[in-house]
Amino acid sequence: MAIAAIGQLCSTASMSHNLALCQSLVKKAVEAGAKALFLPEAADYIASSPQESLSLARPMESSPFVLGLQASAKDNNLAINVSIHVPTASGKMANRSIWVNERGEIESYYDKLHLFDYGSLRESNSVDGGKEIVKPVETVMGRVGLMICFDLRFPEISLAHKRQNAQILTYPSAFTVPTGKAHWETLLKARAIETQAYIIAAAQIGAHNEKRTSYGHSMVVDPWGKVLLDMTGEGSEAEIGVVDVDLEYREKIKESMPLLRRTDVYPEI
Hints:
By secondary structure, the chain is an alpha/beta fold. It is built from six helices and 16 strands. A six-stranded mixed sheet has the order 5-4-3-2-1-16. Helix 1 runs parallel beside helix 3.
C-alpha cells in the first residue's frame, strides 16, 4: 500500500498566494508519510474574468507556480499532480493536468478534452480543448490516468485508461455548487465501479471571488465504489486528507468480477 494525500483549497487570482497554500499542503503531505500529493484543478489561479485569466497564464516551463512546485517535489521527494493554465498558440489557454515526479521532473501532462459550458460559465470562450487521451503514467503510486473535472461526465476516457491498465484515475476539479450537489459523488462512484480503479478527485472549495464558488468535497473512491474520503470541510481552509491505495485489493476486485467487454459487438475505446 502507498499513502496518497489529497489537497483541498480555495485558489484566488494571486499565483504567489496559491503557491504558498500548495507548499503548505506539501509539508502536511510529507508529515503524513504520503508518496504523492493530488491538488485541484486551476490550483495556480482562479480569476474573475476570462480576460484576467488569459493575462495570468504562463508557459509550463517558466510558470513560477509550476517551478515552485517542482522544487518542492524535489526537496521533499514527493510526487505532485496538479492542474494549471497554459497559454496556447491560438491566444487561448489549455487547462492542463501535470504529473511532477518525486525528482521534480514533469513526467507527463494532459490537456482537458471536455470544456465546461454551463450557464454563465463558458470555458470554451478562453480555453482550447485537448487533442488526445494521454496514456497512463508510471508513478510511485502505480499507473495513473490523467483527466480533469468535466471529463468526469464522459466515461470514454476512463474506459480507454482501463484498457491500458490504469490503476488510479485522477479528476482534479473545481465543480460548481449546484452540479456538485447533483452529480459529483454519483459520477465518481460510477467511474470507479466501471473501471475497477481508484478514483482520486482533489477539489477546489469556497468563494474564489464574487462570481465563483466551488463545491469542495474532495473525494477518493475505491475500485468497489466505496467512498474512502469525503473532505466536506468548513469554509475555504486549505487542508489535506490521506488514504491508503492498495493495488493488491484492486487486483482482487478485478479477479472476482471480470469485466469482459464485447468488442466483437461494439468498438473498443
